[in-house]
Request: fold
Amino acid sequence: MRRAFNSVTQVRAQVLGSRGRGPCSAGAQRLAHSCTALVYRQHGAHADVVRMEELPLPAVGPHSVRLKMLAAPVNPADINMVQGTYPILPPFPAIGGNEGVSEVVEVGSGTTSLSLGDWVIPVDAGFGTWRTEAVCDADELIRVPKDISLLGAATIGVNPCTAYRMLHDFVPLCPGDTVIQNGANSAVGQAVIQIAATMGVKTINVIRDRPNRWNLVEELKSMGADYIVTEEGLQSSEMETMFKDVPKPKLGLNCVGGQSGGLLLSHLDNGATLVTYGGMAKKPLPLPAKFLIFKNITLRGFWMTQWKRNNREDLPRLQSMVSTLSGLVSSGQLSASQCVQVPFSLYRQALEATVSSHQRKHILLM
Reply:
């Protein structure tokens, strides 16, 4: 499988005419363009290791394209990569960023799947989106329609896709069924609320108690959330009253772990499935034997990056998912999380906000 150039070493080797397999191996001896990129050469705190640098770009080969990056979010996983704690790590020197939207500005002579002006997002993680331009294979990209917002396109490839797959791949859900999730105010949680609403599926959304809780409650309700409870509420008679109106959940979605994840287990229906896709509490999930023995609960894990890699050769399936989600965005049924837009030159502000608690997602604008 050919890969986009994330590693700065790969980029420079290709410009110098390396014969290694890559998107620009033909005719790459001449320097075509350069880009500005956020580069790190060792793992550590972002303030210590990430630097803005000017880098050469290889020429566009027959089956590759040149991209102008338009916008790229800063996600916690991006920071984890810089820190060296993420399960996949690009070789050094590396360009940060896994997600973003770009415009095709040059097309190789043998490329037919993409055209000038197309908006595209990377298929795989580790692409290196924190830069102004890139050259990569055409088959490393998925088109997104240009009739959705720039921020919607920049953030559609990870969180909405995660929500979509979890709602479709683990339990057959029908209108009237119920899903319960913690971390409901996260980007994935908000996407779950909105996508579930289009399916006629009810959502029980767990949030932490906080000073501005009622503002958050109204915000989530405006997205289509059916029930919103605090972790304390999960332990009260409030739940008994709720389950007089809706069936117990067939599916639970856990991104917190610890006690919060354990409380989800106690409210699942017999034979239900709990999917864990995060561990923000950094504490293990308590698992009383009674839930496995007497309620026959199934425990699963999900990682969007692995799903994409498992389905890497089925580009039509990937494209179909992104097209479906883009259609929901275009129709107003799925909105991007509220974001803070940051000029690329002020990248330190975006990185710092991402490691701080309770900050909105920050988007780098190139």
Q: What stands out?
A: The chain has two domains: 8-155+336-365, 159-305. Residues 163 and 192 are 5 Å apart (CA to CA). The domain at 8-155+336-365 is CATH 3.90.180.10 (Quinone Oxidoreductase; Chain A, domain 1).
